[in-house]
Amino acid sequence: MGNKVKSMGLVGLGVVAGVALTVQVSAWAQKGEPSPLPLDELRQLADVFGLIKSDYVVPVEDKKLLSEAIGGMVASLDPHSVYLDQKAYREMRESVQGKFVGVGIEVAAEDGYVKIVSPIEDSPAYRAGIKAGDLITRIDNVPVKGLSIDDAIKKMRGKPGSKVTLTIARRGDDRPWVVPVTREEIRVLSVKAKMVEPDYAWVRISQFQEATLEELATKTQALYAANPNIKGLILDLRNDPGGLLPGAIGVSTAFLPKEELIVSTKGQLPDSNQSYYGRREFYAPRGADPLAKLPAGLKTVPMIVLVNGGSASASEIVAGALQDYKRAIVMGSQSFGKGSVQTLRPLSSDTAIKLTTARYYTPKGRAIQANGIVPDMAVDETAEGDGLNALRVREVDLQRHLAGENEKPGAVAKDARDSAEQRQRALALLKNRKPLELGGKDDFQLAQALNHFKGLPVKVARAEAVEVISPEPKQLPGTETKPPELKGSKK
């Protein structure tokens, strides 16, 4: 039997790599007797290594060959498993802290190119006019086609103040767009909060970081100090790519009764089968309890959660938990569907592999992977249509994605994005449109959430083809519906 190796588990869609990170403690345990090594294939690998060293046109370093071999082997599994060299490992640790040096975009691979999932608010890319759905075809005039997503990300990283030139292809435009972008240290503000109307609060989480729970406590305290009788709270998780798992558990716990099951994981190894509850040991095992400072009103205030195709991983965990307990109404469009756990397995002091080891499940046992969270009320991004969401790539669209439960091989996501008419309408709307300011006066989905609180008509998605008249708002229960514990969970 192999030795147990302590490691830190990671999950999500990350700030720039399209993979967000969550931290958990895990151990590597082998299942039964180790499989025999495939000696014939290993001999072939050694033969290829030897041929390259002896016959290739120029000398190649051993380290480069072996690193690329490891990277290719891991990358062949799924879009979120990756080999982290020294630089990537360092950058990953920086992103967990909510800062990194780059242009400020969340990306995924599509047809060999780098697709913009979302520009980070107030980043160089955002200010340059780069939009979700754009494709990066060249970086500093080097074609992206053929590069791995991680190699493309490395080319966009650099020193603060340095420039990188991106060639952008945008649907609906005949010619590519070349834009120079100056790299900056990106500090992602985790939580924003304000009163959008008298008695109605808006709390936005842009990414789940180490400081998220502290920020949530501080900003909601300020809201309740100024407005003790808040009638409704909108938790905005749109374009939130995920982040730290403890943050997702803590945010869910902030609005739910204590000790409730928040999320479960299932995988091949015993340590991959875990249940996470609304207890401090899961969201803040060290230091002071950040939730101790939360206003008591957060447990009972009527809630709406806004999600869209850019809501992934940790944000889907929160939306799924609040939806399962009927603590909040989920509104918007279907989320990204990133419901797999990545565990960090160190290879040395400064390299590691990030390996997919489990799937996430909501409290009622719904699998998030490839499915995402389906809103209770589908509401388009604009009054004219779903805007960027009609163009977004989702987990189910990624090559080699981990299949969701009951997903048929080669299945295609069936939603409004499959409609050519919807896509053309979205392109026409986006061509001359400024980036949407979430929480601003022109935020259509936010306006529909406010209408629902007030008992006014809500304009649902075109696919629904009906208008919903919301009842007079009532206190949304936080404890009436308690899902059963998953098999094997411990409490």
UniProtKB/TrEMBL annotation:
GO molecular function: endopeptidase activity; serine-type peptidase activity
Region (Disordered): 469-491
Biased composition (Basic and acidic residues): 482-491
Tree of life domain: Bacteria
An annotated GO cellular component: outer membrane-bounded periplasmic space
Keyword Ion transport: no
Residue span, PDZ domain: 89-157
Cited InterPro entries: ClpP/crotonase-like_dom_sf, CtpA/B_N, PDZ, PDZ_6, PDZ_sf, Peptidase_S41A, Tail-specific_protease
tRNA processing as UniProt keyword: no
GO annotation terms (biological process): proteolysis; signal transduction
Keywords, in A-Z order: Hydrolase, Protease, Serine protease
PANTHER family: CARBOXY-TERMINAL PROCESSING PROTEASE CTPA, TAIL-SPECIFIC PROTEASE
UniProt xrefs under NCBIfam families: prc
Family statement drawn from the similarity comment of this UniProt entry: Belongs to the peptidase S41A family.
Protein name: S41 family peptidase
Organism in which the protein naturally occurs: Massilia litorea
Source lineage: Bacteria, Pseudomonadati, Pseudomonadota, Betaproteobacteria, Burkholderiales
